[in-house]
Amino acid sequence: MTQRPPTPHPPFPSNVAALPRAPGAGNASREFSLYNLPATETATSLNARRALMSRKSLSVEEAGARARERRRDASRIQRFDRLGKLLALLLPAAAGVAWLGSTHDSIPVLLAGYILSGLAAAGLIARLTRTPAAARAPLEHYYLPNEQLASAEDIALLRRLAQQDGELDAVTTAWWRSSAPIRKGDVALAMDFHAAKRGGSGRQEA
Questions:
Q1: CB-based contact 85:91 (threshold 8 Å)
Q2: Are 87 and 120 within 8 A, CB to CB?
Q3: Labelling 168: which of 61, 74, 119, 156 has CA 20 to 30 A away?
Q4: Alpha helix segments (H runs only) across 4-106
Q5: Distance CA 184, CA 68 (A)
């Protein structure tokens, strides 16, 4: 049996840098990374970056639940306001007058206590069962400023900022794919981040 002689390996070039590279291979190490912080990072830009990265998308259901809770609290405050507290204090006082008239066998005092108790109880029930103005207000009235939906101008501003900043574009790309709508608070985070990297103020630049 004869053996085939081993195939000699081609000589390895000493100058590796002289070898031709595939198109785009030289840029692989320079691709954008959210974790590759620039050397010019400041405390302001770092805080703005952290706020941008920790942004929590707020769904329609979550925003509605928060607004309903605020409307419920406002309705409770308006329903049991100063007049409601006064009627609540008047009710035991009227009952005390009626008890005083009963112990002293005074018919006028007893009747006055009963009448006063009835009026106070009726007024308190009417006050607690009424529908206050806060409950009739639309749900959008109880959204916080950062929970309001982004307007067309806000969306245009966000797209313009993303076109100017590759890092911001990489972050906001996931926002468009999410089912949660973009809100004014999200746009404010992008403005603050963009301005912090430029050493300015996002609200002023807008």
A1: no
A2: yes
A3: 61
A4: 43-53, 60-79, 82-103
A5: 19
User: 21: which 2 tokens?
Assistant: 């590279």
One-letter amino acid for residue 29 of the chain: S
Run of H or E including 204: helix 202-205
Residues 6+ apart with CB under 8 A from 28: none
Overall average pLDDT of the 71-92 stretch: 83
pLDDT in tens, 111-123: 888 888 888 888 8
Q: Which two tokens stand for residue 120?
A: 């106070």
Over residues 12-29, the pLDDT tens digits come to 444 434 434 444 434 433
% helix, strand, coil for the chain, step of 5: 70, 0, 30
Give dist(CA 80, CA 127) in Å, integer: 7
Tokens coding 195: 């301005």
Residues in the chain, overall count:
206
